[in-house]
Amino acid sequence: MINKVLSVQEYKELTEDFRSICRRPFSNIYLMSDDIKRFIELERVSFEKSDYGLIFYFDEDTFYRVCLYVDEKQLFEIPSRDKKLLIRNVYRTKKKDVKLSYVEERLQSLGFKQEGTTAQIEGNPQELIANCKVIEQYAKKMERKGYSCIIPDISCYEEIEDMILESRVIKDYHMTFRTKEEKRNMEKGSYLCIVNEKGELCAAIIADMDVDIAQIEALAVKEEYKIRGLAPILDYKIFKQLCERKIGLVQGWVELDNDDSLQYHMSLGYRFAGKQANEWILEK
Amino acid sequence: MRETILEILSESNAKIRINADKNLLEERLIDSFEIVNIVMKLEDAFHIEINPELIVSANFQTVDSIVKLVQDIVEKENGEI
Do B31 and A263 lie within an 8 Å CB cutoff? Predict the structure, then answer.
């Protein structure tokens, strides 16, 4: 039976209760406590409790992000639901543990398909910007030719998100769910885009900026504007903002089989952060 | 001109010199960040301006296509003087 998590307190009690039965459960709850709190307050977290543990469902609108808190040695069940299910198992690159292997074996037998593996990359915005000095000049050149980098109005966010999804640089379940209110409250400059002289959208980036860390959530360039150096301009503009805000770390996730993206980010000066994530999907 | 261009490309990726006949994009010898570097250096070296509309994969696929691009711009700009 699936129930809604009504409060952070209830969430804590649920996990503590299960820990009293199973001392070291397998957990892939990699969400930060603020994110968990946020989802609970939005009434978007539900759970299923059984002898083998807890299955949490974070409703991301187009899919459920499923987090496990289970005894991995038991044959836990995860039935399909009205939306696609995503399970993201994050692990240290050189340390995929035995518990995770048990869980992934079970996921496979439950019908989940491994869609891919992403690697975390990171960099210091000041170091990245030092490596990208030439882009400042290039951005000015492109601006003279009609390609302007702007902070879009919130009314353009949907068009930007659609363009990002259409470009297939990220999968639909990589797009972070936010309510309109949350989007409105995001730091100014979290969405940046490049438009041509006709005002048409050519490229865009979304970055979630916290006090001391930023996450690049998506960066996409429309097919007809690829190779034109618009992606480096957007990255450069974000790095500049992060430096101004004294944010010391920028992170992102890149699909391991996306050689172009990996090479591009390494050229910019990013490094691997030592974490990977296997993504498992169960269609509805 | 070809040698200067090869020099500029090699500064971005030393492997380009020994792979000069290969498709630079398909072989991932250059990416969009490298293209920014290359465009700026070509503009400096040949005192030209490369229009954004010319920064397309067809013009950056091979060393020869880059040489042709620069040649065409140089000729056009000289013709305009």
Answer: yes
